[in-house]
Design goal:
The protein has about 210 residues and is α+β, with helices and mostly antiparallel strands. The protein has three helices and 15 strands. The strands form four sheets. Strands 1-2-13-10-15-8-5 form a seven-stranded antiparallel beta sheet. The radius of gyration is 16 Å and the shape is globular. The protein binds 2-oxoglutaric acid (AKG) and manganese (II) ion.
Length: about 210
Amino acid sequence: MVDLKHVFGKDIQKTIFDLPDADIVLYDHFFSEETSDRLFKRLKETIKWQQDQITFYGKVFNVPRLSALYGDTNKDYSYSGITMHPHAWTQDLLFIKSSIESVAKVEFTSCLLNYYRDGKDSNDWHQDNEKELGENPVIASVSFGETRPFQLRHIKRTDLKRVDIPLTHGSFLIMRGKTQHFWKHKIPKTSRAINPRINLTFRIIKNEN
Ligand SMILES: O=C(O)CCC(=O)C(=O)O
Ligand SMILES: [Mn+2]
């Protein structure tokens, strides 16, 4: 437990994951319940959510979630074959960004948001290792709404077990160092009837367009 009362929540709980080739820290209750409720509602209503598509073996599929890119407007971002041009920062996003920057001690240029409407929405195994993010990306992930498991697996070490980290309402997870070189992550589908979830991943895009 660390004292971060000056930042926000009263019961911020810090967990450092002891995993090889990774640097992952989780802060539960980073944002208070009240702040999290307010931010969830506001983001759901004000973010310009879009349905992205991917082409796989010549067929076009809807990505199983809604997404949006916000950030410094001179920083385009390409992933999964899609190039996105960011919307300008909103007040809510700047508030979340400055809150996490006070702990992360870096400045983020961009925020990718995902809206998981129900248990059918998901995010399949991947690494956040696009070249725009540089050699060792810092990825700061904030979640609001339904708790979903964030699963991690080492790409080489088959002796290591999969890790499941529940990302709760108002939580803040940070991945740094070599994590994106060695670990894939995913948000699995579930057949349970669940509420929607919003996730924001703050990133540092090095190039300028
Ligand atoms: O929803 C999450 O917690 C993860 C999102 C993610 O991995 C991504 O957008 O790259
Ligand atoms: Mn990711």
